[in-house]
Amino acid sequence: MRAGQTARILLLAAVAGAHVAACVPEPYVRYDGGKFGRKAKTVDAMEVLRAAPPAAPARYQDLGTVVVTCPSIGVSPPLGGCNYHWAVRKACESAAAAGADGIHTIETATNTSGETISLKASVFVRLPNRAAAESAATPPPPPQKPQPTVQERLRQLDELKKEQLITPEEYQKKRAEILAEI
User: Fold this and answer.
1) pTM of the model
2) Of 125, 138, 145, 164, which is the most buried if we count CB atoms within 10 A?
């Protein structure tokens, strides 16, 4: 084979390879869920729980799912896909923008060369402990007044009788109740 033919074959292979690489779709991220109503967190503050949701007794709420897709085409070796850590970071970026605390239960699919072609994870927020939430929602009881002594109660009863605000029968009955407590 002559040098010109070899160069032409290499050029055709390079053009064909560039054409195939141009056919690989771009990676994308889709978040299907709600916002938690707080400002976005930083990506580095996100929790990543690969296999399971937060363990008990932690309270959490799922907000939705995030899907990262890094398509590849099936040539040998496959072209496309993306690094697992890159896909996790992209999922965390999307979750952080929704005000979430992290992602959990990560599911992935890979191509034959081991690159990630899809990653799906649940997005969650941590909730306050019930005791803390209940105490924050329930106002503290009003302070109790000290109970008057027996002497104070009898003096008050005498004043009510003097001012004729109670009948003599009511006075005798209430005085007997107070004295019975001694």
Assistant:
1) 0.58
2) 125
**CB burial of residue 77 (10 Å; 0-12, 13-18, 19+):** exposed
SS (H, E, C) the chain: CCHHHHHHHHHHHHHHHHHHHHCCCCCEEEEEECCCCCCCCCHHHCEEECCCCCCCCCCEEEEEEEEEECCEECCCCCEECECHHHHHHHHHHHHHHCCCCEEEEEEEEECCCCCEEEEEEEEEEECCCHHHHHHHHCCCCCCCCCCCCHHHHHHHHHHHHHCCCCCHHHHHHHHHHHHHCC
* Cis preceding-peptide flag for 77 (omega within 30 of 0): yes
- The side-by-side arrangement of strands in the sheet containing 60-69 is 28-33, 60-69, 116-126, 102-110, 47-49
Per-residue pLDDT of the chain (182 residues; tens, 9 = 90+): 455 444 444 433 443 444 444 455 688 899 988 887 778 888 999 999 998 888 878 889 999 999 999 987 776 667 788 899 999 999 999 999 999 999 999 999 998 888 999 999 999 999 887 655 555 566 766 777 788 888 888 999 899 889 888 899 999 999 998 888 88
